[in-house]
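Attaching the record inline, Q. Sequence:
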Amino acid sequence: MKALVLEKPGETPEMAVKEIPAPVPGPRQALVRVRACGFCHHDLLVMRGVLRRGVKPRLVLGHEIAGEVVETGALVSTVFPGDHVVSLLTDACGVCLRCAQGREHRCLVGAGIGHGADGGFAELVVVSEASLVKLPPELPLAEACVLACPLGVAVNALQDGGGLSSGETVVVTGAGGGIGVHAVQVARAAGARVIAVTTSAEKADRLRGLGADEVVIAPDLDFAERVAASTNGEGADVVLNVLGTVAFDACWRSLAQFGRMVVAGEVKGGAVPLSPAELLFKDAKLVGVAGVSRRHVQTAINLVQQGRVRPVVSQTFRLDEWMQVYEAVRERRPFGRVTLTP
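Structure, as predicted:
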């Protein structure tokens, strides 16, 4: 089969489209023909060599997979050849304590797809039965690849992480990116007032079109005063920080009393100063969210079927066009998600 293989990470990574042996599904796995695979910031960080721990040598990246089941292992009973499926981000076992709790993304023994196990930048991929969610046949596979990451991650971050309720105000950072464009819509569907923060003026009108009540253009990521002015000095009930360290201070200063900051990404690394006294006096919550469970993906599917959220895939590329994707994502040019197709 054809696959895009990471030969050597670096600022200019060495990648190659190669013919490699097709994987064989184990007893609880399915072989999936990949129709589309999203390119996530996680993929960028692995390609650059920023993320190294647990990365499989000569890795096939890609964890945002949508495709058709081709073959199943002997013990698989919930998906069948011909089914359209989307994958979680972790190749979960389905039987450990966390999987039993519905936390498949934190499986105690599972490997990260496109990280510790080969992923979807290939014609075929094997994924555990526990990590596949069946799709309604009417959902296009070209768009369905975003239903877990980033859309399901946005659901997890706002609903579980932030406890967002109707009538509350939410700030979405990185609003023009993959998680951001879907978080704006998830928040709007929940009945919240949405303040979208972006560094790109070119993305403002499109964010309003997705339901943002206000768009703050902040190339320097200093947006707290704008949030205060928009909320009569009270701040936001929920702040979704998908940028991590670089936006932490502005996110913190944007929080209202009893506010919740949900950290769902990190683009630079490093540390931030945080006084426990500030946390106490603000009665605030600081929550980390990474990954997505089956129930989050099912919620994402429901939102799309109801027409309340639209998957945002701005461009599609071939595997051999990977450098164009790498450069575009590194420079934060895409609106929403870009995808690769074998």
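Residues 258 and 280 are 10 Å apart (CA to CA). The chain has a mean pLDDT of 96.

More tomorrow.
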